[in-house]
Here is the input.
Amino acid sequence: MLKKLMRNYDYSLLVTVILLTAFGLIMVYSASSVWAVTRLHEPSNYLFIKQLEWCLIALPVAVTGMLVPYQAYKLIVKPLIFTSILLLVLIYFVGHTANNAQSWFALGSFHVQPSELVKITLINYLASVFSNKQKSIDDFRTSVLPPLLVVLIFFILVAKQPDLGTAMILVSVSAVIVFCSGLRLRHLLFLLAVVAVFITSIFFKFLSSNQSERFTAAYDPFSVADKAGNQLINSYIAIASGGLTGKGLGQSIEKAGFLPEPHTDFIIAVIGEELGLFGILFVVLCLAYLVIKGFVIAIRCKDVFGSLLAIGISSLLAIQTFVNLGAASGLLPVTGVTLPFVSYGGSSIIIMMFSISVLLNISAFVNMKRSNNRQEGERVNVTAFH
Here is the structure.
C-alpha cells in the first residue's frame, strides 16, 4: 500500500510547497534581521532559526498527513471539534496577548495559535457532515442548519479574541464548502442573504475602535498616516521602489523600522522591494498553482468526503492568500493574516503543511483509482478482443 501511495503522489504539489517554504525561510531571515536586533535585542538570525524550528516540527506532521488515508479523518471529527472549542475557550483565561488580540498560548519562547487548528478542524467537520447527508441534503433544517450553528460558534469565539481576519476566513471557507455540497439554489440564496445580514450586524458589533481605524487606513491611508495608515503607506513605498527586479536580497530600507513587523503579514512588501515584481509573481504563481491543483484533485475525486476536503483546503489557501495580499495592497483592511508558507508563523506553517499533505494523500488515492479503472478497462478490451 505504501509503495502504491508513493507512486501516485502528485509530486508537483510537494515540489511547489518545498520551493515556497525554502523561499519563505530566506525572506523571513531577510525581513526580520533588523527587527530581531533592534526590537527583540537578539541576533539577526533569531526569527529565522525559530521559523526553521517550526518547519522541522511541521515535517513529521506533514509526513503523517501524507501516509494516513484521508478517510480516517472522519473518525476524529468529534474529538477535533471538542478540542478546538476547548482551546478557544481556554485562551480567554490563559492566552497571550499581542497586537491587541488574545489569540496565542505562550509555551516558553513558542507561541501557539489555536485558531489555526480550527481552520482544518472546520474543513474536516463540514466535509464529513455534508458527505454523510447527501441523501437528505435538501432538508435544510436537519441537514444544513446544525453544521452552520457549529460554524457560528467558531466564528464568535475567534472574533471575540478579537481576530476578525481569521473569523472571516472561517466563514468564507465554510461558505465555499456549503456551496459545493449540493444544496438547492433557493437554499443557497437564502443562506447568502442571511449571511450578508448576519456578517454586517455582527461585524460592527465586534469592531473595536482600533479595527475601525484599519478600514480608514485601508482606503484612505494618508488621512491617518501617523497612525494606522503608516503600515500601508510604507508597503506602497516598498513595492513601488522595488520595480521589476528589486533592490537586491537583503537591501530593503522599509524593513529597517519603517514597516512594522515586516516578517509577518507584510512580508510581500519586503519581497517586492528586494526582489521586485518578479519576486511577487513567483510567490503568487506558486500559490495559485497549489490552489488550482487542489480544485482539480477535488473534481477528479469521486468520493464526496475527499472532494469536499480538497475543496476546503484549496479554498482556505486561496482565501488566506487573497486576504494577506489584499491587506498589503490596500484592497482590504489589515487583519494580521499570514501569507501561506512565506510569512513568519509557527502554527500557520504546521497547519498549512499538514493541509497540503492531506491534499497529496487525496491525490494519491484519486490517481490509484484512475489507474485501477484504466487497467480494468484494458483487461475488458483484451477479453472482448479475444
The chain has a mean pLDDT of 87. Residues 2-379 form one domain.
